[in-house]
Design goal:
By secondary structure, the protein is mainly α. The chain has one domain. The chain contains 1 helix and no strands. The N and C termini lie far apart (66 Å). It comes from Vibrio maritimus.
Length: 45
């Protein structure tokens, strides 16, 4: 039974790793967008 679960476990680990990487990328993009927004607001003040 455990041997049957192992492939699923490694798939879950890979999926979790990909999710973390994707989240990190999104946070970086979001951070850049927020910074651009702040700079454009400062331009109008």
């Amino acid at each position: 039974m455990l041997k049957e679960l192992l492939p699923q476990h490694s798939e879950d680990k890979q999926l979790a790793q990909r999710s973390k990487e994707a989240r990190k990328e999104l946070e970086e993009i979001f951070g850049r967008e927020m910074e651009k927004d702040r700079q454009s607001r400062n331009f109008w003040d």
